[in-house]
Specification:
single chain; mainly alpha; 0% strand
Length: 143
């Protein structure tokens, strides 16, 4: 049961990030902001996941990776909605963001993979799509 919850949280995380990356490229800033706020709401199921993992005495790696996910969401929220800084051009701000981003995705893929190779493969495929969508959102079209 918990493993399915964790997997579904990883799927929703990936799908929302893919959507946000594509919205950055193809939509208005207001739509990106709404999607960003919806994305930050994933903190609620992440906290629930931490509680469930501890109640069900799941391996501590689940709690660690969910906390990394929460830290990523908090940093994203602080950068985008509180400070409203353009952190992607400042390596001192970007480095911790990227480290949490990669760690969070790693945690979703690896912990899910340990439970189900099929589900882990799905999350790996979604992560690859995330990377493609992210690259696409940051490249300019040639005319």
């Amino acid at each position: 049961m918990f493993e399915t919850f964790y997997f579904l949280l990883g799927v929703v995380n990936s799908l929302l990030l893919i959507s946000i990356f594509l919205l950055v490229r193809y939509a208005k800033a207001a739509q990106v902001a709404v999607a960003g706020k919806v994305y930050l709401a994933l903190a609620i199921p992440a906290v629930i996941g931490i509680v469930l993992a501890q109640q069900q005495q799941k391996p501590t790696q689940y709690t660690i990776f969910l906390r990394i996910f929460l830290a990523f969401l908090m940093l994203e929220g602080i950068y985008d909605f509180v400070l409203k800084v353009s952190f992607r051009e400042n390596w001192k701000l970007l480095t911790p963001y990227l480290m949490l981003y990669w760690s969070m995705n790693y945690g979703f893929i690896v912990m899910t993979w340990k439970h189900s190779k099929l589900q882990g493969g799905i999350l790996l495929d979604l992560f690859i799509i995330q990377i493609i969508a992210n690259i696409r959102s940051h490249t300019k079209e040639k005319k």
